[in-house]
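FAQ
Q: What does a multi-component entry look like?
A: The components come first, one per line:
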Amino acid sequence: MNKTIAVFFGGRSTEHDISIISALSSVIKPLELTKKYKVVPVYITKDGKWFSDDKLKNIELYRGNAIDEFCAKSRPVSVTFDGGMVFKKSGPIKKDIRIDIAFPVMHGLYGEDGSLMGLLRMAGIPFVGSDMQASVIAMDKILAKQVAQANNISTPKFVFFSKSEFEINRDAIVDKVMHELKFPQFVKPPHLGSSIGITKVSNRDELINAIEVASYYDDRILVEEAIENLIEITVPIIGNEILQTALPERPLLRDDKFFDFETKYINGGKKSAGKKMGAQGYSELPANIHASLYDASIDIAKKVYRMAGCEGISRIDLLIDSESKVVYFNEINPMPGSLYAHNWRASGVSSIELVERLIELAEERFLRNKKIETTFSSSFLKQF
Amino acid sequence: MRYYWTRFLFSYPKTIVYMLQSSEYHLKDYFSWLHRSADMRLIMKRRKLDYTKKARLLLAFIWLKLLGIYLVSLAIIIFSIYIANYFIIILAVFLLFISPLIITYGISIPLWLGQKLIQEPKSRKIIASAQQIFAKHPALKIAIAGSYGKTTAKEILQTVLGEAKRVAFTPGNINTLIGIARFAQKLRGDEDVVIVEFGEEKVGDIQAMCDLVQPGMGIITGINEAHLSSFGTLDRTIATIFELQDYLGDKPLYKNLESALVSSKIDKNDKLAFSHDGVNGWQVSDVLADVNGTAFTAKKDSKIISAHTGLLGLHNLGVIATVISIADSIGLSVDQITDGLNKTVPFEHRMQPRNLHGAWIIDDTYNGNSEGVQAGLLLLKGLKAKRRIYITPGLVEQGDKSQEIHENIGKQIAQVADIVVLMKNSVTDYICNGLKESKYKGRLLIIDNPLEFYSNLDQFVATGDVVLMQNDWTDNYA
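Then the predicted structure of the entire assembly, as tokens:
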């Protein structure tokens, strides 16, 4: 009998819409074409309700207000943890759907950050992608940089502080940032992806404005010194113990040298005609950089992947100073947009093979973890 | 009987007309398809009914007939209630039960009548008029016959001869007597060359086409088991195609030496027997082939032609040599022939390459014969690739030899392909047997829904793959 795979997407995140596209085009479609699985879509609304219905596999539903009407008319699913994960569909036809494997295709908070992985761990079912701990590290840009530094991996110089610290001691914080870091700088909300809330600044006023913008999205703020002579490189990786890398890819930058949300998802890089268009805009694939930097990028990306404890799939973003030839770690994307399927395809892995491999990796980790003892017999309770 | 209920579906009348249309209104093919189909929901897989005038009329006829059956049944029920004899209701139920059979077989009556009373007299008139047109036409008429390769030969010929001559040729796959006769009505009369493709389904077909067109030159592209179901034996197929030789007598007839069934019937020293080495004194050499086409040199005495054709596959070289020879014989210069050859590009669905996300897809879906399979596999083997993917439903109309032919195809595929994709149908098991016998270790995919597979091909391939899509079956062969 075909295994039932629940594909989770949407969610309470600023990257809600990106998640829908990733799930529908890069996961549900190839999974269904394998004919090996029964695919159950699980759409999480922006206010956190869960819906499951085959109609949710149709992209047309998300154009305009149709999805809101659908959610208003439908009943959310309830979940029980009855020796696994079971969706209980209410309504005139009651139905229980037992989930064999979960495929979270969530970006950003409450999904990619380890929250959903925690729930799936509790349910005791295999799931695709990094586990909770790695997701937590990956989705906290400050924590990830600290872990990288502890593993002797270079990162751009950075300063971080909380939103409340900034509100109480604004001038002192700004002075500290300006003292420790040179301009230009990047101001980032540390838990968001897709470049949302990130601003490049060149003077004190811009810095203050950018911190205010970032603090709108997060309760901590990260300020980084910009890398001079910048080459951005991203390296997609799949695997648990044995890692497979796709082609190092160079996202193309705008004049202000910043690959923002608009360039990634809205423009589709149309301004840069003649270059290849990836899932997130135009890019150079494979990156046309010196062989030594190319190889170093792959090595450092793998090191970062292991250091954070990533499994299944991730994309490691790196920054290279083309003059000093130093490769810096920038960030980890535990669930790359559209799985970065365009790059995997260019690397010789078809979209169907990619999702099949990710399912295999999920099951492999699940079996491995099952062997780990989680109970301990003691006479402790007898004392009471 | 398990799926008899599917004949009561609202879509069933449309399905019947679709089957008739896909069988080109040949009742024998229609009934044969009907008898091997159980679940009528699975019939319309690849395309939809084309609502032509004929299709609309047939559909209306079926619905009227169904309405008649329902009314009669209703009348019987009312009558039985009226006379209080409920036993008669069984008759009405029986009538309703067999209503699908009545419309399924009853449709043949208006079709047969239409063919006999309207179509055939009209066709005879068109053919007689076309015969006059061809008789008066001063052009060199070149007939192309064979089980396979006719359209490719015609296309290369018209592209090259068109460099210096006014050329007319039968469009697309038109190769029936009535199709050729209709084509004749469109000739302007001032053409230098008229190229006509001859198709054959039964003994005497080629002779009838010769009488119609009165060709002065011919090409036999090759003979194989295609249409074996209708011919019954290979000898009959060979004899039918060689009706062209009988007609031409001493006039030039080029014959494919690389087709075993053709070469068995000709003198090996026949100057007009062509192969990839050349023909009629033209020697082909320095051949370089890749996914962008084939480069080669052809020499005869002091004449040297170095050309690059966009056509893929070495099997085309024999036909190309023939075209060079014909072009030379009717006065084209070396430069004109070279220019013409350089303009030849792959024809639609015949070893036509396209790039899909870095993978090369070679569309050979109009190539449905065993020689085509060999040529396709040879091409696939010769091209640089990370993975070689071979997609096929198998071949149709292979008669009693179907099992043997498909097991052999399975064995051949096993030597070349890393991934084999089979469109599920009546010959799939035979191909699988061949793969198994050859201990095939690659990946095998069996696809139930070809339309879904082809429209999502981008999800199955990756950069570096070379994919050969060989042959495609219409629903009536599935």
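Q: Is there any commentary attached?
A: Sometimes. For this entry: Chain A touches chain B at residues 29-30, 33, 35, 342, 344-353 (CB under 8 Å).
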